[in-house]
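User:
Note these tokens:
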Amino acid sequence: MASTAISTHLPSTGPARDPEFLSSASSFSLSRRSLRFSGASPVSFPSIRRRISCQTNASAVSSPSSSVNGKANAGFKDFLHINDFDKATILSILDRAKEVKALIKSGERTYLPFKGKTMSMIFAKPSMRTRVSFETGFNLLGGHAIYLGPDDIQMGKREETRDVARVLSRYNDIIMARVFAHQDILDLAKYASVPVINGLTDYNHPCQIMADALTMIEHIGRLEGTKVVYVGDGNNIVHSWLLLAAIIPFHFVCACPKGFEPDAETVQKAQQTGVSKIEITHDPKEAVKGTDVVYSDVWASMGQKEEAAYRRQVFQGFQVDEALMKLAGPQAYFMHCLPAERGVEVTDGVIEAANSIVFPQAENRMHAQNAIMLHALGL
């Protein structure tokens, strides 16, 4: 494998939350108690009524908001980066997602933990999946979500982010934001007195990776000890995989063209935790051998479309096609965070193949996010 110098195999040891871990991000501009139902009688879902302990590790770094607005004292938690939490908490949130998903799938509609609550959804970047999954999920659990599009706030231009955070905190119980500059989500969390959920920034996309992890657990049966090979640009999706690999042990490989590697400091910090085997390589054919998941994303993300033609040239050889999936082996699933440019980073045949789980993956955005919001609100 033609790996770079940062490719290494690190032993699995206990996770340690490094306070320096977020420095690169900024530069990228249930205690046991039963679920409560509103209906007269509880539904027979014993596993769902089992609440999971979601206490963060004492060594975890506090959200930057806690020193400003005291939300930590109110029991609220932001969800900005996966590695803000320890392994037990992340796995507990994923367990909660499975339980609430089963409840929703059963047709049960009396579990309404968000009843009487509102959420503002700030979209500097438009998105079908993020909007529909958050809005639908919050509604199914009894809440009301308010969409604020790119022209509704113009956060940082028409009104300062710190003012937006403090005003919306007086109207709403929770804020979700999908923005460009990572500093915007950090500033929102710093000044908001309610939980802030990172719906995507140019640096990371934690809700997507939580949905991906849930999908892997459902289809493979586990997350720990698996091998995930991402083929394409070392973007915000890769950064979130790296942050997950910093707390849960698995083998993660990013196969990308030279010059399109993920943020070097994020790679280094993830490796220094000693939790997972992490590799950065420029040889996708070698990388995918024996993997459990082949993962792809668009080569030119929103805000990079002017580079699309250039990237198509540079990324030749990094398309996930039937030949690459054959090299991966019959056990390998294909995943993509969508939207996909069929015929560019992935062929139509791969997306439509029996081992493609992109649509269960997309559905799980809603279920993972429901569990994240329940955790953030202490419900």
In short: Strands lie at 118-123, 144-148, 174-178, 196-200, 227-231, 251-255, 277-281, 293-296, 333-336. Residues 1-17, 26-67 have pLDDT under 50 and may be disordered. The first strand starts at residue 118 and ends at 123. DSSP finds 16 helices and nine strands in the chain.
